Amino acid sequence: MQGSEGSHFPPLLKFGAFTPEDEARLKETFTLVDEAAIERDPRLAQQVKGLVTRSNYRVTKALIDQLPALKIIATNGVGFDGIPVDYAAQKGIVVTHTPDVLNKAVAELAIGLLFSLLRRLPAADRFVREGQWLHLTPALAYDLAGKKVGIVGLGRIGKEIANRLEAFEVDIAYFGRKPQAVAWSYFSSVEALAASVDILIVTCPGGADTFHLIDESVLGRLGPEGFIVNIARGSVIDEAALCRALSERAIRGAALDVFEHEPLADSPLLGLDNVVLTPHIGSATHETRRRMTELVIRNLVSFFTTGRAVTPVPSSFQMN
Ligand code: 8YV
């Protein structure tokens, strides 16, 4: 089988939905098949050597076992918590991701969500559109300048956010496994960080090591004047505890781009007035997604032509 340009790469299983632009870019180089095609012609499963997916989807061990010729799993995203990386490694399957090319876009969204939350921008827009301004005065909101901001996980994206925050006259601190050579204050405990800041910004990777890292206790430490922004993974926050804290005003507000279950549906979050909600759009810009998909293609082409990937996921992954 070959791609539209006559490329002689094996067919790729496209696992999950991609934007039309991303899918078209992949099809310039590869022949894509989906699970329905494999159901129609089970022989395809024996031919698939590569799987391309996005960080929003969970690649299961069972799916991997259905593809005996699989050699590479390429995810269009930096997060790989949805892939059983150790199981793949045991079967000699390389896993690649797209680090760095999306750092700025995700950091920009975090800053945008922070201002949307502090200054109640979505509510202000509705206030005008719904004609409330004719009868009411807009509610007061909150400054960013002078606040203390804590970054949960000072990795590449966390550093991009902290560098941007420097311009807004805030005190910056961070939590991680180890202190780093940066000017910001280090906390070895996320509870201690939460107790000392006004705003938490969650940037750490998802996965077993960070599951419910932000729980009821941490939210209690953040306190009734505290805000939390999550642009990392929904699994990092105990969402039921967050809903309780928001409903009971145990924290002041939250801005969330990621959720324990996506797409978000039938959640108490949808009825709260002290949250800002976005649909996992951290990297969702034309420029950034183009770079990500190009890196996915570079990984696949490099692997199929040289046996080596460009950006394999780190073998022993450590949260910064
Ligand atoms: C989404 C992300 O994966 O990079 C990540 O880990 O969470 C986002 O970029 C997006 O759906 C990428 O296609």
Write the layout of secondary structure elements.
Layout: E1 12-15, H1 20-27, E2 32-33, H2 35-40, H3 44-47, E3 50-54, H4 61-65, E4 72-76, H5 85-90, E5 94-96, H6 103-118, H7 121-129, E6 148-152, H8 156-165, E7 171-175, E8 185-187, H9 190-196, E9 199-202, H10 216-222, E10 227-230, H11 239-247, E11 253-256, E12 275-277, H12 286-306
Parallel strand pairs: 1-2, 1-3, 3-4, 4-5, 6-7, 6-9, 7-8, 9-10, 10-11, 11-12
What's the gist of this structure?
With 320 residues, the chain is an alpha/beta fold. The chain folds into two domains: 6-100 and 286-306, Rossmann fold; 103-277, NAD(P)-binding Rossmann-like Domain (Rossmann fold), CATH 3.40.50. It contains twelve helices and twelve strands.
What report would you give on this structure?
By secondary structure, the chain is of the alpha/beta class. It folds into 2 domains: 6-100 and 286-306, Rossmann fold (3-Layer(aba) Sandwich), CATH 3.40.50.720; 103-277, NAD(P)-binding Rossmann-like Domain (Rossmann fold, 3-Layer(aba) Sandwich). The protein has 12 helices and 12 strands. The chain has a 7-stranded parallel β-sheet. Strand 6, helix 8 and strand 7 form a beta-alpha-beta unit. The longest helix has 21 residues, at 286-306. The protein is globular. Mean pLDDT is 95; it is low at 1-6. The structure holds 2-keto-D-gluconic acid (8YV). Residues 54-56, 76-79, 102, 282-283 line the site of 2-keto-D-gluconic acid (8YV).
